[in-house]
Amino acid sequence: MNKFVKHFGALATGVAMTALLAGAALADPAIIYDLGGKFDKSFNEAAYNGAEAWKAETGGAYVDLELQNDAQREQALRRFASQGANPIVMAGFSWGTALGTVAAEFPDTNFVVIDAVVDQPNVQSIIFDEHTGSFLVGAIAALKSTTGTVGFVGGMDVPIIHKFYCGYAQGAKAVKPDIKLIENYTGTTPAAWNDPVTAGELTKAQFDAGADVVFAAAGGSGLGVLQAAADAGKFAIGVDSNQNYLHPGSVLTSMLKRVDVAVTTAFKEAGDDATFKPGITVLGLAESGVGYALDDNNKALIDDATKATVDDLSAKIQSGAITVHDYTTDSTCPGI
User: Fold this and answer.
1) Residues facing residue 184 across a β-bridge
2) Torsion angles phi and psi, residue 100, rounded to 5
């Protein structure tokens, strides 16, 4: 399958898709990654790791596909469904329209979509409280900063990434009300998820403007942020997957979004109607769906006082004592 994926762009779309899916066994689960590549070390790779964890635990087999363009979404869903794959899991906020159409055509197939909401009886929509996890890493960034300025480099300029930024900014201001924030995005098209060069240049500009910690919420583009921080002797914050290992001593922490757990759970549950959970599932701090990464690669960077402060903030968010505004509810970020 890797051979076909690698050379997908050189093949006619219909022929390539047929070749990719011909081996799908009846009732094997399937996962379709979003644009940006399976091995982006961030969002898509977290989804892949979840599928691999299921495979290692159960000994089962699954089929997968890397999208090359938006036009392939409906075709990929139909091909997998017609081959008998069940469940079919999709990672990414751009699946809503295609899934809304195809799910109705295959009522006996269970679909799970991550980061989008589709109201169909055979669809489970999994969304995350990215704003609360981002709040925690925003607090860490502000507490670590010695310049009083922290930065944010997002990928595609879309509401879900503003949700990350708004949470991050709220967390930073919760511990340092006078903190300055710099906000940039790598682009307005899906290419923004795989442009580490632009992300790196934006990060360098933020460092030049006084930032000493930059949070990357940019998929594969975020690798450019992490590299720029390592080169400059400053700090970056990773996203989705635990990226602390990429530049130990420079990656301050990573905002974890447990897409891997969502995929593993979907593979276990959604193929059986008795355990399938259609409707909306929300994963936040209480469900360990989001959080921050602390391991051997960054434990020297986060002192006990910072950890205690951030863990206290997490507890207060979960209890309702602190409310973190969700940008996607009204397209605003009050006070920022």
Assistant:
1) 153
2) -60, -35
Q: What is the mean pLDDT of residues 126-138?
A: 98
Domain boundary assignment for the chain = 2-128+260-283, 130-256+303-330
Residue 231 Cα to chain centre, angstroms: 25
Quote the CATH superfamily of domain 2-128+260-283. Response regulator (3.40.50.2300)
Apex 315 CA angle, 215 and 234, nearest 5: 20
Please state the CATH superfamily assignment of the domain spanning residues 130-256+303-330 in this structure. Answer: Response regulator (3.40.50.2300)
* Whole-number Å distance between alpha carbons of 261 and 192: 25
> CA 102 to CA 98: how far, in whole Å?
6
Model confidence at 17, in pLDDT bands (50, 70, 90)? very low
Q: What is the chain's length? A: 336
Phi-psi region of 173 (alpha: psi -120 to 50; beta: other; left: phi over 0): alpha
* Common-topology check for domains 2-128+260-283 and 130-256+303-330: yes
Which pLDDT score, from 0 to 100, does residue 26 have?
A: 54
| Mean pLDDT, residues 56-80 | 95
Whether the per-residue pLDDT at 256 is higher than 60: the answer is yes
- pLDDT for 37: 87
Nearest one of 162, 267, 150 to 211, comparing CA atoms: 150
pLDDT tens, position by position, 282-314: 999 999 999 999 999 999 999 999 999 999 999
Phi, psi (deg, nearest 5) at residue 34: -85, 175
pLDDT for 24 beyond 50? no
Residue 316 has a CB neighbour count (10 Å cut-off) of 13
For 275-282, what is the mean pLDDT? 97
Cβ atoms within 10 Å of 78's Cβ, excluding its own: 17
Average pLDDT for the chain: 92
Which is nearest to 24 in space by CA: 2, 1, 46, 6?
1
Distance CA 336, CA 331 (A): 12
Does residue 2 surpass a pLDDT of 70?
no
Are 63 and 30 within 8 A, CB to CB?
yes
Phi, psi (5° rounding) for residue 263? Answer: -70, -45
